[in-house]
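# nightly structure sweep
# worker-07 picked up a monomer target from the shared queue
# config: single-sequence mode, recycle default, output format = structure tokens
# input follows
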Amino acid sequence: MTILWNWLFVEFLLELVQGRVLVMFSRRCVKKVENVEDSRQLGFLDLPELVMEGILTRLPAVALCQMAGVCRELRKKCRSNHLWEALVYEKWGKVTGRLAFAEWQLGLAAREECGSEPCSRSSGIWLWPLSCILPVSWMNPQAQRRSKAAVGENSLMAWYWDLETGRFRFPAQVYNRENGHVGFMLSCYDAEVSYNSATDVFLASYPPHGPRTSVYEEDVPWERVRAPPVDTAAHELHASDCLHDLRPGDHIEVQWRRNRDFPYGWWYGIVGHTDLCPRNHQCQCHLHEIVWLEFNQYTLGSRWRKAPINRANHCEEGNEGEGFYGGVRKLRTKEEISIWTKLWPSEKLE
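# output follows
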């Protein structure tokens, strides 16, 4: 079965590349004269269900969208959520989260309420998938309606293409905002981002705060964008649930803001030792009420190098001179830690 499966898939890709895929999908039946059985050429829809499913699950997004425009039966199969779930996760899983998906669904509901005409934001959203199948000259209102039917407005297929076309700006977080400005080195801030498929980068919009207006950053690469790891809003204090577990050497992110008019950003640090700790097997720093957070990207003696927080009664701590420290989250995976180490500055910061 595996050999047959692979052979069928290779044959399918060859047909797709050579532009004969639509012919292969059509069912043709040649009727013969009296008392002679019908003869049917084998088409894609005549394949066993498991074989057909295996081929569809291996297709990239563009090819799956092309197939959805072939006929009603393939449209139903190709926009099935279980096929698009893997495609969505593979491309968008690390940069979108529950909040982004929830906001997208709210946008769909709003579009339904205001109707198709006033909601210009969605009027051209289906042109890209349909243009995989039809010439641009065919892109009239009737073609758009057919495209909507092919995609399914509230399906994962629609979610994928809203992200791919950049028409949905989704909430995310950006490492080292504003092109790695020294004032934001080894931090991660909330932003609204949209994807540019032509350049494979993002446009980030940082919300206004204090006297500053919105800031836009172009050409943000994939490795600097992540889905928010917690549901805490940028102006809210995160409820820390790891303070009693923190030990020297643990990797953490801590909320920090310049003053109370600013949103929090997440800053990378490491749990340090107290000044009197022998820093060996007799270390008892994990029993102390005060936890020292170290930010080793700064030089020794810098006012940003260390900060104490209260393990038992932690709330926002700090002042207008050195900023305010908020909630703490412990990094528990090597992947999270490695992202920060790859962003490490080439020189120590003051």
